[in-house]
Specification:
It is a single chain. The chain is built from 2 helices and 30 strands.
Amino acid sequence: MGWLHRPTGLTHYDPARAYRGYTLFSPNGGDDAYLIDMEGSFVHRWHADKGISYGYLLPDGNLLFRNRGGFQGMPGSDGIQELTWEGALVWEYRNPTLRRHQRLPNGNTLLLLYEPLSAEQTRQVRGGFATAQDPERMQGDLVVEITPDGSVVYEWRSVDHLDPQHDVLCPLEGRTAWGGANDLTALDNGNFLISYRVLDTVVMVDRGNGAFLWKWGRGHISHQHHPTLLANGHVLLLDNGAHRHGLSYSRVIAVDPNTNEITWEYHGDPLMAFFTHFTGGAERLPNGNTLICEGNTGRLFEVTPTCEVVWEYISPFFAHGPQGVTNGVFRCHRYGPDHPALRGRDLDPARYSNVNRLYGGRH
């Protein structure tokens, strides 16, 4: 029965040390995104008939999200949509190869897409395990910036910068995509971070000339997610640990791109107490704590700089998926009460009394 009989909802809360705010998450396989308060009560909900795989709030309170979908058996989405706080559709972009999205300050949207390599490029890619069903042309990673009307104003291709001799696929992964990029993060200066899951590699790309400004990870991390740049210039990421040599366990680390030194780390105690083979993420909160999503188990939790858990919530929503019935969550975000998206909003849990009776608070 898997995780069906584990506790769900709010399981721990230390008000004196947690960063008070509202947490956004969307259950894997579901059609809704939820905003909960620190006590685990639901205060807002968005719904989309095509599903909400992952989304985040824009400064005006709109929800920008990608729906459910996939591409030739690989994870992804069929498109992204933008809903108002009240749930009205105001923008949509369709592309069956969509992987990630981020709204830019200029109103455009940065996208991570799949794009097929040539047969010759595919033959040059090393690593991975071969099967009779392997495609003649593997997928590569394409970054594009689009205007609100869908016009492409910028393109960048991984195949132009990865090295077949050094960027070798994990031997336990199939030969469907070279790199298997799973995250894209635009930086304030226009450059961007990309996470190559099956290469155990994170790179920072110079938007101007397309070159790698920083490339790190092989031998240090395994099948990571969600690199973000911290205020001190270090990069925070979730090191999932899938296919790690030895014991598989997850950790969250911060690394200094100038020295490649790991400057902060959180892991479970014991190590196997924190592990998500796929998905998940981490974000640094304004008070210095870190909000972590243990994706496969639907566990959202906050830790202090000294790695003490001060808030924990387990998603109560279960759905059928490729791994069976799970309560997985791709990622979560925390918004403080003064965040622009929440100004003037009705966040009274009483509005969702029926949902809170079933799922809210502690269970």
